[in-house]
Amino acid sequence: MPVCRNPTSGTHAMDLAAMSVFLYCFREREKILDIFEMVSGQRMMVSYFRPGGLWRDLPPGFEEAVRAFTAHFPLEIKEYEGLLNKNPLWIDRTQGVGVISIKDALAWGVTGSSLRGSGVNWDVRKALPYSSYEHFEFDVPLRTEGDVYARYWVRVQEMWQSLRIIDQALKKLPKGPFITGNRKVAPPPKEELAYSMESVIHHFKLWTEGFSPPVGEVYVRIESPRGEFGTYLSSDGSPKPRRVHFRAPSLANLSAMHLMTKGVFIADLVAIIGSIDIVLGDIDR
After folding, report:
1. In angstroms, rounded to a whole number, what is the distance separating the alpha carbons of residues 223 and 31?
2. Rounded to an integer, what distance in angstroms lies between the CA atom of residue 183 and that of residue 51?
3. pTM (2 decimals)?
4. pLDDT (tens digit, 9 = 90+) per residue, 134-185?
5. What are the tens digits of pLDDT across the range 64-76?
6. Could you please report the per-residue DSSP string of the chain?
7. Is 259 exposed, middle or buried (0-12, 13-18, 19+ CB in 10 A)?
């Protein structure tokens, strides 16, 4: 049976509060994309990380831009929390809605904030640290209700934890080369091409043939904003992989939606879909 409440009760007021938060988030997202563009030249679909390191060193002004953002962003998070955390209309439309149990979340492969909103303490950065995450101190926010409000709350708390990580990363930002010196994996510096024939050869072979990894297979997972993102690679020793497969979080999270939508109103579907935060490009993988 549907939950005993009026799905249109206070809808416009709740929509106004949610829209205000959305617009604020959109504004802050633009500031983050500006930093992406400063570093990589692209606002989205960046290709800054390369085999062996990075495309180039961090540009002048990077640290100042990040610190300016992290100094301002806490005020915005507090405003989001002030608008929604104790908003009776928001609570009525999100608590007890879109519930998924721990057992079902694990059975359907749900990951990320959606899994932690059901009480499962699983964050790849903590469980299987990669990319130096073992050197950072941060907490894994958890709720046990497994509803829309729990998933919202976890995501907001993760913003605070991200600020902690960024602050520590800036303090530990290392000096030195930004890419490996192994010319069989990474291209030589462009200035070397003017006087080194060996560098020209390495550059040409790398761009025309690629590099040959050893025979074998590997699966690597990371904690993406929407959940666990995994990459499987199988090599036959040639420059082209024998098989590549991506395990994106959106498909698994969406697959469990039939459990979250039992006994709810159609008006609740938007909140439920938003709480698991799917991306259609992820599902197509």
Report:
1. 22
2. 11
3. 0.86
4. 999 999 999 999 999 999 999 999 999 999 999 999 999 988 899 998 888 8
5. 999 999 999 999 9
6. ---SS-TTTTHHHHHHHHHHHHHHHHHHHHHHHHHHHHHHS-SSS---EETTEESSPPPTTHHHHHHHHHHHHHHHHHHHHHHHTT-HHHHHHHTTSS---HHHHHHTT--THHHHTTT----HHHHS--TTGGG--------SS-SHHHHHHHHHHHHHHHHHHHHHHHHTPPPS-SB---TTTSPPPGGGGGT-HHHHHHHHHHHHH---PPSEEEEEEEEETTEEEEEEEEE-SSSS-SEEEEE-HHHHHHHTHHHHTTT--GGGHHHHHHHHT--HHHHH-
7. middle
| Amino acid residing at 60 | P
